[in-house]
UniProtKB/TrEMBL annotation:
Family from the record: Belongs to the ABC-2 integral membrane protein family.
Keyword Oxidoreductase tagged: no
Membrane topology reported for the UniProt record: Multi-pass membrane protein
UniProt entry keywords in alphabetical sequence: Antibiotic resistance, Cell membrane, Membrane, Transmembrane, Transmembrane helix, Transport
GO cellular component term, pick one: ATP-binding cassette (ABC) transporter complex
Organism, scientific name: Nocardiopsis metallicus
Protein name: Transport permease protein
Chief location of this protein within or outside the cell: membrane
Amino acid sequence: MTSVNTLPAPEKRTSAAPVPVPGTALGWWLADSWTMTRRELARWVRRPGLALLNVAFPVLMLLLFALFIGGSMTVAGGGDYTEFLVPGMFVITMAFGLEGTMTAISRDLERGVVDRFRSMPMAPSALLVGRGVADMLDSVVGLLVMIGAGFLIGWRWHGSLTAALAAVALLLLLRFAMLWCGIWLGLVVGRPELVMAVQMLVWPVAFTSSAFASTEAMPGWLRVVAEWNPLSATATAVRELFGNPGVVGGSWPTENALLLAVLWPLLLLAVACPMAAARFRGLNR
């Protein structure tokens, strides 16, 4: 009689990879946020023309005002209009970044991208964080290009390097506040074609500031509005740090421009961040 050796049945194998055990919640959040940031940065590579256009537009505005309009403009307290204008254009560039953020958020909403990402096993806030990091990197590049363009047309800073870096920090703080305002407005608007209606409000805010013209030449009521404009606070503070002309006292907002240049963005962040987070959580409910 032949004996048959009974061997244990082989284990059934599957092609699925083992599920990794998460280390920390913070680690997963950072990984998800970086993935969303890379998604946004990949658009720069796929669509370089759009990225170049976003950088070229503020440079064209700077050249238009400096070369064609600057000859007829006067600066309070004297001084060259180009040195007055360039810091103001830095502020306008940071403020107008709000439009790009709004457009990107509303486009993702309309195409259902936000819903698809929210249904995936990832940190829900990573989508907004990735958007924010990519937009801030874009703003840093845009600001460096504007600084280079300012140097080419004769602008210089006359203070210390520390003061110049502080001015750059104030500009990026303003951009960060505008970023979260753009995220909230993009979530509220929801469709790219409606973004234009909101964009029309950005221009009056920009032109009723001291970015392009000194408040000394404005009518009394408009001067008060312009001096309390958040963009005016950053423009005046940046001019003071760069040592450029146009910083004239006489009112509380102009004499405390450095303080307001910090308080205004922080106030905008205190309002926009919770509202954007609440709106994002309430999508499709």
